Amino acid sequence: MPLQASRIHDFGVLLSYFGVLSIDFGMEVDLLKSTFSALQVALNQTIEIFNHREDTWQRRYDREVEKRRNLERQLRLTQEALTATRSNPANRGIRLGPGKAHQRSHSHGGQQVLFGNQLFPHVGAPAQGSNTASCGVPSTSAGITKMFIVEEGGPDFAEGGSGYTVNEERFYDAIDAQLDKLHQDEACLMALKSVGDKLRSADAMPSSHPLYSEVAKVCEDRIGIIRNGFPSFNGEVGSVNNGWTILAKQGKIIICNREVESSDGTYLDPLQAVHTVHNVTAREMCEAFWDVQYRLDWEITVDQAPTVLEVCGDDTVLQYQAYKRIWPATQRDSLFWSHMRRLDKYQFRQDESVTSEGQIILDTWMVVNYSTKYGEDRLPPSAKTPSFIRLEVDVEMFCQTLWRPPSSDFDMTTLPDAEKLQSLSSEEQQARWEAAGVTRDSVCCRLLYASQINPGGWAPATVVRTMARREYPHFLQRISDFAISHTANTTLKF
């Protein structure tokens, strides 16, 4: 009995020891199920991508086959027409006088070849029923204009008769379609210019405006980002500075972020980027970012400029913007107000008037873009379709004009106050700044770009972070290049 009790005791000890190490089959099964579920989703997405790519290549192949058939047929018709023309010298083509069609056919600096009845195939299908009576070209009985282009040596070409044929109606319909597109683009640019003019002539946003309190509250809160000075990020890509991870470095551009996701897995990473742009002031940089009439000069994520729903004041505008669709993601749009203002010196520490490199801070400006629901009833009809996912934006750009004095003992009291000079003309302001030694070649703009964007819907965090790491440096470089070229040979704006 003692021996049996001892063995039972030893067996109990073994069970208590190895029982801890035993496998929890229920947990393992759940883990296996979740793993295979995620793997199945990934495989389905991969198969969808491959199917989409296969369909794309199949469509391209079919188009190329159809193009080849058309070219062979047109070549045969052209050869027959050429043979008939040579056999009948009386059949001569007409010469088109110089005009829009003549100029456009030469605009690419190379020879434009016409096959059969197709001219400018890149214009697209011609509009039906277009009026060609006012074009000033005689009609032929067959409705065919015979023409060909010969090289004269150099970039210019001439249009003349005989050889290639193009249907007269199709020719002018194609020209009309292209001119209509140019007129639409011109109308869009004129609308943007009128918005810019309205912004410059508008009064300050009244305190009774529905957005006034929201704009004031959000801006006051966002000023806290730089209240203690501009952040500095040191180290290589991947290093951490005060909780911020350096994502990318490109020249003087440094991109940092913090990885944050909501409870439902939505990507909410706050991002900050620092950059220095030479020969540009803070106000000029902020205006390039804020003014809608310049948006298409540096923004490539949109097909057209934003729709301005309301000019709330001389410093605030309500706008709607639709972005290009990137397959397989759903197309996004946004509704936000954009506000621009000068920041007063009392909002910062007094010792922040000079940087650690000895540069004097002349002024500070900021732009805030913030999503809102105000104005949803005035959205364009295209925005009310379910094909868009509304993203939420919270974007700030802070800019400071830096100037390096000629000597370390420079008396800062001799510098003019940028805010007090606003009542003077631009020429008088320029004279005051030049008298103090401040010129365009001696100033630079230090900027901080901060954003926290909720893309809405579902998007893999790794993909979004990779896109941010790759695209944000290009975005900052584009807007910087535009600001430099736009302000070259102009008076400084503070």
Automatic annotation (TrEMBL):
<dbReference type="GO" id="GO:0005737">
    <property type="term" value="C:cytoplasm"/>
</dbReference>
<keyword id="KW-0175">Coiled coil</keyword>
<dbReference type="GO" id="GO:0035621">
    <property type="term" value="P:ER to Golgi ceramide transport"/>
</dbReference>
<dbReference type="GO" id="GO:0008289">
    <property type="term" value="F:lipid binding"/>
</dbReference>
<feature type="coiled-coil region">
    <location>
        <begin position="54"/>
        <end position="88"/>
    </location>
</feature>
<dbReference type="Pfam" id="PF01852">
    <property type="entry name" value="START"/>
</dbReference>
<dbReference type="InterPro" id="IPR002913">
    <property type="entry name" value="START_lipid-bd_dom"/>
</dbReference>
<dbReference type="InterPro" id="IPR051213">
    <property type="entry name" value="START_lipid_transfer"/>
</dbReference>
<protein>
    <submittedName>
        <fullName>START domain-containing protein</fullName>
    </submittedName>
</protein>
<feature type="domain" description="START">
    <location>
        <begin position="241"/>
        <end position="488"/>
    </location>
</feature>
<dbReference type="InterPro" id="IPR023393">
    <property type="entry name" value="START-like_dom_sf"/>
</dbReference>
